[in-house]
Amino acid sequence: MYENVVVSAAWLAERLGDEDTSVIDVRDGWEFDGIGHVPGAVNVPFEEFRSEAGDEGMLPGAEPWERLLSAAGVGPEDHLVAYDDTHGVFAARFLVTAELYGHPIEKLHLLDGDYSAWNRERETTSESPSSEPTEYAVREPERSPLVDYETVRDALDDEGIVIVDTRDPREFAEGHLPGAVNVDWRELVDDETRGLKPEADLREILEAAGIVPDAHILLYCNTARRISHTYVVLRSLGYEDVGFYEGSLTEWTERGGPVETGSETESE
């Protein structure tokens, strides 16, 4: 089990300025410059590391990713602490992308809460960071959580696998993978703190849906953004057997995968 997957504002504050810590703000540039940011953070906007013309699903491709992180001054062994202003869902996508391109998984961290939560009690700045470019290079990850269409299709008939739809209940009712359970990623977030709910609450929500630590879990949404948040949460709780369907429902429907309609309540 990896420690410090999700880190507190206090944890980050103690490490600001450390040479081996890169703080990544994935908001749009106008927010980073105009609203302010965590001191020392660098801006890698979400839209710059999402591409339908890149690798599998919405991954940007190895070379664009290398260029982005090199320009941001990220070192290959840096601790990366990512944040956004949307409860962490966009920041989580950055971290999963980093993992899939081989950044050491134990050095990937999601700031618990977002920019608004940080701004309530801590210093922010509008000054541009002075980071030196690096020559960042992708690596093969030690273990990739990615699963493909065929793996998910075969899982439909496997009662030992829990397929999890992380979209909202309305989307789920309009169409989902057969047998999937629905846990909206927002159920795991506290609207007041803007961070994760307490661990006991998270486990209760997940386990009520059959998402238990020793289960084989496959995650999907529409374009793999929302599952990134759920994936990071599960990893923070010590879940080890979690598959990440990068193609998600977009690829699934394009390839003619079967879809059910109706809510879980209706099917009980």
From TrEMBL:
Its EC number is 2.8.1.-. GO terms for molecular function: transferase activity. InterPro entries: Rhodanese-like_dom, Rhodanese-like_dom_sf, Thiosulfate_sulfurtransferase, Thiosulphate_STrfase_CS. PROSITE patterns: RHODANESE_1, RHODANESE_3. Residues 121-142 are annotated as: Disordered. Residues 17-127, 157-261 form the Rhodanese domain. Keywords: Repeat, Transferase. It is an enzyme of class 2 (transferase). Residues 126-135 have a biased composition (Low complexity). Pfam families: Rhodanese (PF00581). SMART domains: RHOD (SM00450). PANTHER family: THIOSULFATE SULFURTRANSFERASE. This is Sulfurtransferase. It comes from Halobellus rubicundus.
